[in-house]
Amino acid sequence: MTRSISGNIPKLYLIKIAKWFMLTMPIIVLFYQENGLSMQDVLTLKGIYSVAVVALEIPSGYIADVWGRKKSLILGSILGCLGFAVYSFSSGFNGFLIAELILGVGSSFISGSDSAMLYDSLLKMNKEKEYLKQESRVMSVGNFAEALAGIAGGSLALISLRTPFIFQSFIAFIAIPASILLVDPNQNSIKLKVGFNHILGIVKFSLWDNAKLRWNIVFSSVIGCATLTLAWFIQPYLRDLNMEVSTIGVIWTLLNLTVGITALSAHKAEEYLGKTGTSVFIVIGISGGFILTGWFNSLIGVGVLFFFYFVRGIATPVLKNYINQITESEMRATVLSVRNFIIRICFAIIGPFLGWYTDHFNLSSALLLAGTIFFVLGGISVIFMTKAEK
């Protein structure tokens, strides 16, 4: 059994690659604009995607705990492939909206289930202490995949901006057989009692009863929302610097390589700085990245983007690990989904507002405003998280 469970690790790598080898990301905003969408339309569309994820985020995490993480990952993989297939033949806001809703539902079934599957697989092998290192490696593999996809997507976009979406459907398909071949490490364990009241009980426990868990989730969510938000500003930011699509693809590649390389050493950075030091560094690095990028509307700002992605490479695996360390196995996917739920709720509110602000004022001032917002939210979260730890 242990040997078969150990095979989950490379399969989770494949699922991550299929999810993160995003040929569309280097050109997706340009593709939207080619089809008549404004920045407000773009971020509204992504806000709706977030709402779709939010609608099923916690229930899907709970279903994964009860129904099985493997089944949840299979369903999410199928919907992910279908969503990009719909994108390949759609044009205009309404067509993209249908594709985003399918992708949102699919993402909600993968979100939380993959990390929970990884942690519980290691737990079953008595290697749970290696989670941070393995989560960092999985994240690194994903970012290396996204980096390579930046070059490939930029090259395919020379044919047309729609071509990367067609190829993306085939990439997404890889996750389906990989998820089918997974072995659920908890397949013989006692399942949670199914019921809406029990879902609410877990949510109440994680966000109200347990202060330590609550503020770890809130802090991780604020930083997750910040990294998600900046990703949608990079392409218009680089375009304002009069860069070609192929150049944007190369920079996107290098940014994701930065995350992937940094993630491999995230556990060492956390060991050196400690929890409080790491948390303060993340808040300053993430919010400062927004502010400095908005301040320097030049190649200096591009350099700041690399620093932002360096901090992101440390933040994502470390903050997930903080949550996993204080969460019981039988509710792990649900709790991780609570985190993702908050990220999407925050982005659904902040994203469209910043898009509107960009259209009515300018991109630089929107970045400065975003940096201020995330500095305040992140700083408050760290203060209460530190207090709860004591």
From TrEMBL:
Q: What is its main location?
A: membrane
* Record keyword Membrane present: yes
Q: Where is the Major facilitator superfamily (MFS) profile domain?
A: 1-390
Q: Which residue ranges does UniProt annotate as crossing the membrane?
A: 12-32, 47-66, 73-90, 96-119, 140-159, 165-183, 213-234, 246-266, 278-296, 302-320, 341-357, 363-385
Gene3D superfamilies from the UniProt entry: MFS general substrate transporter like domains
What's an example of a GO molecular-function annotation for this chain? Answer: transmembrane transporter activity
Q: Which UniProt keywords apply?
A: Membrane, Transmembrane, Transmembrane helix
User: Per its UniProt record, what Pfam families does this chain match?
Assistant: MFS_1 (PF07690)
Q: Write down the membrane topology.
A: Multi-pass membrane protein
Q: Which PROSITE patterns match?
A: MFS (PS50850), SUGAR_TRANSPORT_1 (PS00216)
Give a GO cellular-component term.
Answer: membrane
Keyword Lipoprotein applies: no
Name assigned to this protein: MFS transporter
Q: Which organism is it from?
A: Labilibaculum manganireducens
